[in-house]
């Protein structure tokens, strides 16, 4: 069963690898580089969680902006919308943005 995709959960897995399947025959390893939380704004609904997860991947294959099936050894399987946000040495940096209501008990 996949983990709940929260800032806290992703933060537990910094510097670990996530496998992305851009197509059924290809697996790309991305490393979780950073998790950045955003402060709540006074105009937002109460109980919102806003954060970004930043991943680093190889130069090839380049991942276009789209949703991808992902898997992590401890977090399980889930789908994320990845957005390429820049080049890094030897590859690309990708961002997944989360805006959701916090689950009770968080």
Termini separation:
19 Å
Question: How much strand content do the residues show?
Answer: over 45%
Query: Unreliable runs, pLDDT <50, ≥5 residues?
Result: none
Helicity range: under 10%
- Counted by DSSP, the helix tally is 1
What strand line-up does the widest sheet have?
1-2-3-6-5-4
- Which sheet architecture does the biggest sheet show? 6 strands, antiparallel, barrel
SSE topology sketch:
Elements lengths: L6 H5 L5 E7 L2 E12 L10 E11 L7 E7 L3 E13 L2 E11 L5
Antiparallel strand pairs: 1-2, 1-4, 2-3, 3-6, 4-5, 5-6
Tell me about this structure.
- There is one protein chain.
- This protein is mostly beta strands.
- It contains one helix and six strands, in the order αββββββ.
- It has a six-stranded antiparallel β-barrel with strand order 1-2-3-6-5-4.
- Strand 5 and strand 6 form a beta hairpin.
- The longest helix is centred in the first third of the chain and has 5 residues.
- The protein is globular, with a radius of gyration of 14 Å.
- The two termini are 19 Å apart.
- The mean pLDDT is 88.
């Amino acid at each position: 069963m996949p983990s709940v995709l929260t800032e806290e959960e992703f933060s537990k897995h910094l510097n670990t690898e996530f496998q992305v399947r851009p197509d059924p025959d290809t697996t790309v390893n991305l490393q979780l580089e950073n998790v950045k939380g955003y402060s709540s704004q006074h105009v937002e609904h109460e109980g919102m969680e806003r954060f970004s997860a930043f991943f680093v991947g190889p130069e090839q294959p380049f991942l276009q902006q789209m949703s991808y099936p992902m898997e992590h050894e401890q977090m399980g399987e889930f789908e994320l919308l990845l957005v390429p946000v820049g080049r890094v040495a030897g590859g690309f940096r990708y961002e997944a943005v989360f805006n959701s209501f916090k689950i009770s008990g968080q």
